[in-house]
Queue: 3 jobs
Job 1
Amino acid sequence: MGKQGSGSMYQLARAMGKTTTAVVMAVYWLLPPGTAIAATETQSLAVDLTAAGASQYNIDHTERGIRLSPQARQDVGKDTEHQGFYVTAALGTQAPMRHVRPIMLARTPPGSEVMLELRGQTASSRWTEWREAMPESPEIVLPASAVRLQARITLVQRGPGQGPEVLGLRLQAPDPPHDEANTAPPAKKGEPVTPPVTTRVFATRIGQIGDKTANGHRIGTADRFVALPSRRALNANTYDKSYEVKICYPVTNRCVIAPIWDVGPWNIRDDYWNEGPVRQMWADLPKGTPQAQAAYLSRYNQGRDDRSRRVRNPAGIDLADELYWDDLGMTTNDWVMVTYLWTGDDLESVK
């Protein structure tokens, strides 16, 4: 599909500007260095940013936290952007948490930005989708109560300059805490289970050999991964298999399971497999309908994506070369059936 429709690391950084510029001013979670953090009797988890994370790219550790690597800053020209990310190790909670109040201390010089996302691991050992800290809310509400938390911090720099630096991060339960007894126990044998969401979407080939994916992998010709247009289902690294899809191509009658390593095509905040109230953007569209599909076929949003680019195909998923050519036997971009495996409990029936 090429650069135009993908959500590679470079293009993702460009799209973050409209949202994260406001986040820098959101004092309830992004505070100036030296700001005191109020003591609380509820849970409070301090994140050690000086330690090696579960995954990181273009990041240097300082005495207090993390920053973009000097090499990354040197490589940035006047009109370009660069980014790095850091995924923390999983943090165990004293009691299940669903509502989380993040407090981050960061330096964001002109032209730099920071984005924070959280996910939680439930008592059944499954990870929820990621949820982004937003300026209009002091809390991140996870899809389910979690016994372990993990944070992903993305640093962005536009043009030359010092770049952003994160000096501290603490994750607190609200005071007073919300009722976190929301997570249902795992289904027992014989009980009804929820099947994963399956939908028919248009698939395109990623290509972009040599580029980096949103989780730091350099794209090769023998890769087996996909891109979906939302960071909510982006695996933390190439070993993480929390978010996988099953793709079936009716023309060849072939199916394959693959992880999500990149963000795209077209949109970057379109988790179209979720219901309207949960969907990050385009909540008025039917569940299972990618915004690009509606824009291309029905001129939804005047036929443009979330970055005001004219949508030139209805793609809702991008496929790496090995999946596209060899596993599925595709010779042209086409419609496929996709099952989003992390969205249900009944996985044995679809794998």
Note: The mean pLDDT is 85.
Job 2
Amino acid sequence: MKFKGWIITLFIIFGLGYAGYAYLHKEDKLTIKNFEMISIEPGNIKQEVTASGKIQPVNTVSVGTQVSGIIETVLVDYNDEVKEGQLLAQLDTSVLTENKNDAKAQLDLANAKLKIAKLNYDRYDKLYKNKLIAQATFEEAEVELATAEANVLSAEAAYNKAEQNYGYAQIVSPVSGTVISKEVEEGQTVAASYQTPTLFTIAEDLSKMQIEANIAEADIGMIVPGMIVSFTVDAYPNDVFQGTVKQIRLSPTEESNVVMYTVVIEVDNSSRKLLPGMTAFVTIVIEERHNVLRLPTSALQFKPNSFVRQFIPKGKIELKTNEAIVYQFKNGQVIPVIFVKGLSDTSWIEIKSGLNEGDKVITEFIQKGNR
């Protein structure tokens, strides 16, 4: 009986010891409840670049004046359609007319002096050939004739300039298009002494517009001419417009230490909804894949802490450039799994191999006290 009692006592002591050990070390174990998991399922991935830019006419022409004067008449207003060669404004021509008349008088005087110089030359030429005058006298007649001819050329140039300036008093449109800016009113004085003042800005064809979007250098390598672009504007929030990448300008700018490149996007504006200066919010689709295995990019942000690392099997992990690592929970252990990456966007990353549909991966560790 004593022996049997000792056996029972030993079993009781062993059971109590094991229970105490399990209680003291229960915090050193992990269960699936310690993790937030996500199941791998197929879906769509769209890699795209977003930007913004101003909508502008493809070609605008600034119309100015090369002569100073008072604006006598303005014949067009904002939004007017004009044709090439159409009169837009007229400067006062009174001073220009006087300049032209004065230049004509100087030309007539130079022609008269040339006529006299020719007569003198012909007369001295005959006398010199008959040896009736000295050579020096004949040479003086030659110089006077040459001077008179040069004076006529100078007077002709002055007259042509005055006549041209007179023509500049009529401000005409160099292209057909729409007046989008008018900087002058009747009675206003314009001065063209140092630079040509702009009187009107004409957009050549508002049915065709373009967007100049700034793209960061990290994304510019994915963009090529011909790509389809979608964009919206605040004026029509429910409408999605389309365009095409036309040009990538090679002159970069820098904004907040980020190198940016200007991408020019062609836009059909036959509806005339889009107006110059509107801000376009651009989306350029680089690549799109449907029904592929994908993983939230947040799963790649999970990094085991020192406690969780106790449950990761020992071993060296080496990743190639197209690989990434996620973690699964199996049989009380945290198992690292390497998979091959494919296309990615801001939310999802494609799984080329290494994981299967339905696999669960860890996205977050839940602290013991928060269970």
Note: Helices lie at 2-24, 94-129, 135-168, 217-220.
Job 3
Amino acid sequence: MSANPRLPSLKLLLGFEAAARLGNYTRAADELYVSPSAISHQIGQLEQQIGQALFRRKGRGVELTIAGQLLHATVLRSIEVMRGGLARIETYADADLVTLVCPAPVAHGWLQPRLERLQRLLPALCPIVTVDQSARFVDQLDIDIAITHQPLRQRDVVDRPFLDDARVVVAAPALAATLAATPRAEHPQHARALGLESDLTDERVAPFVREQLGDFARAAIYDDPRLLLDAALRGRGVALVSSLLAADSIARRRLRLLDGYDELAQAPLWIARAEHGVRSELVLAVFEHLCAMGDAPRSRAVA
């Protein structure tokens, strides 16, 4: 067999799939609005091209051979992929949709609380928010706007510094009140520390963690910053978290910044969109409104 066998036509595969699913050439023909002889001819062509029998007769119908079962499973997966792609294209054709890719902590703590305001400014807007960080280009996965930790440095893409971030020490209000009434040196006697696994090995963050929270016993370590935030909200301990992730919880007074602890500045986040051929005016409007909501200096150039 050839290393790259010629693919059968979609027409033959759809006829085969219908016959396999229905177990009958006549019912398959009715579903596809062709004659039973046309289905029989298509199956014959497909078997000839593949070089194996795909069906055997069973009563008044047919059943799949082993080769037919293998091909049917493959065809079903392929059809579902095509249907998903077509559905995505149909959805993306809606001019009111704007797709944003964003790191999960930023989407959770900063973007989500601002979507309501954004939709008041742009009533037609229906945002699609994805935290799929595999998208590295604005034109990948139908992305209109990307919020990233580094500028994309992609040709024909506008990159702007967007949001400043910092690691800050926080606690739930009741625990924060207890610590506020206690000398800083005695805090480890009244609380334990919550940590993020990646912080413990980061060459810049790990020394800061030891400096600020090294005297605390550990309550728990998480591999997802959103789980770390949830533990802090539940009062399980003090936590070093992204200020962007904690922003909404602090604004709602569900978390408090702890006095007497330093914060560690982080590299700014960037926002990007296509420079030319933007899909709709709404994309441009969303981009400009988000930039206005950001706080990183506009004058900072792409390094």
Note: The chain has two domains: 10-92, 94-303.
